[in-house]
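Input (structure):
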């Protein structure tokens, strides 16, 4: 393989080899990392956390099956970058969850990987110290410990599945997951979703087209065989049984928002023609808010009005929320960051989040 290089606890191998003139020409090194099985043993899930995950998955599946009339609310930071702030947010959200659990199943957004349009910070798992060191070996441990603490409160967590390998380090702590607009068309993510243990929401394409999500649902429902990695870190042929709990997330697109009653009706008709259950979650952010976090409340009110007026196809709603509103650039690192403010997409504040959720619970 080449020479051994020590770097931040990882074993990194330089790409000096007999065939280096024709292979790995643009790879600087390979870094060994502990297998998912070893990391799961190092940061073990607690019984309380396991109970939280199992209960939330069952509740969400019952909502998707039409057995539970409550609605799913997936709410929290656009991405987690500070464990302390995330835990403070979780404590507040958990207290709110208990007040409205007769109307809503509340799940905290715990997004640990971030898709980038070009380049930028890739998320807590990849760069937990926000210093471009990409301490993945520590990131997967820190992420697991954080998720265990949140689930230990009784508050379930949701995430976006970005990397087909990284999710194996913490999927046992996730009760709901999303496949983003950029990756819903990816065969890799559709195959992966067919084997995930939790319900999966597929976002409509970046253009706003729902056929991408519908095709993803159909693909994920089917069994697949593909090349992957097992819990011990060995390259394996993965065979899945299919995931019956795929559903659509409407998040708007280049053509504009798609959360209105007419948009929902069109989506329902499209699902019926494709033979897919019309179980819809609406994202109040992204193109639906026209990329302005201050518009999330307007989208929320519209969707809640649809639900109050009898829409049975809308099963949930998503909000990007943090302790404080807005966002900030990472810039010079921790020394310049405001506590509880997003470093990726802008979020509404906790106070606004609490207000609109309590009002919705009261009015439904």
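Output (sequence):
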């Amino acid at each position: 393989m080449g020479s051994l290089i020590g770097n931040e606890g990882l074993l990194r191998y330089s790409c000096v080899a007999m065939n280096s003139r024709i292979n790995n020409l643009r790879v600087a090194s390979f870094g060994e990392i502990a297998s998912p099985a070893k990391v799961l043993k190092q940061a073990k899930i607690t019984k309380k956390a396991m109970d939280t995950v199992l209960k939330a998955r069952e509740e969400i599946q019952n909502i998707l099956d039409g057995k539970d009339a409550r609605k799913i609310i997936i709410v929290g930071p656009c991405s987690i970058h500070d464990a302390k702030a995330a835990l403070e947010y979780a404590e507040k959200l958990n207290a709110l969850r208990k007040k409205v659990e007769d109307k809503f199943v509340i799940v905290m957004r715990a997004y640990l990987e971030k898709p980038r349009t070009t380049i930028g910070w890739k998320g807590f798992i990849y760069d937990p110290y926000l210093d471009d060191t990409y301490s993945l070996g520590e990131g997967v441990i820190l992420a697991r410990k954080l998720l265990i603490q949140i689930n230990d409160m009784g508050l379930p967590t949701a995430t976006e599945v970005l990397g087909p390998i990284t999710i194996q380090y913490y999927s046992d702590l996730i009760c709901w997951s999303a496949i983003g607009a950029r990756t819903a068309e990816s065969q890799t993510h559709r195959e992966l979703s067919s084997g995930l243990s939790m319900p999966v929401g597929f976002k409509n394409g970046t253009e706003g087209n729902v056929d991408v999500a519908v095709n993803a649902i159909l693909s994920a429902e089917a069994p697949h065989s593909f090349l992957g990695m097992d819990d011990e870190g060995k390259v394996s042929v993965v065979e899945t049984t299919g995931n019956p709990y795929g559903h659509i997330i409407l998040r708007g697109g280049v053509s504009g928002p798609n959360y209105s009653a007419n948009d929902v009706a069109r989506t329902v008709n499209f699902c019926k023609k494709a033979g897919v259950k019309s179980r819809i979650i609406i994202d109040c952010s992204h193109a639906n808010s026209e990329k302005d976090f201050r518009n999330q409340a307007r989208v929320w009110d519209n969707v809640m009005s649809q639900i109050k007026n009898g829409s049975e196809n809308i099963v949930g709603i998503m909000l990007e929320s943090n302790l404080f509103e807005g966002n900030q650039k990472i810039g010079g690192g921790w020394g310049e960051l405001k506590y509880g403010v997003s470093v990726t997409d802008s979020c509404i504040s906790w106070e606004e989040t609490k207000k609109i959720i309590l009002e919705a619970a009261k009015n439904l």
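Notes: The first helix runs from residue 36 to 42. The first strand starts at residue 4 and ends at 7.
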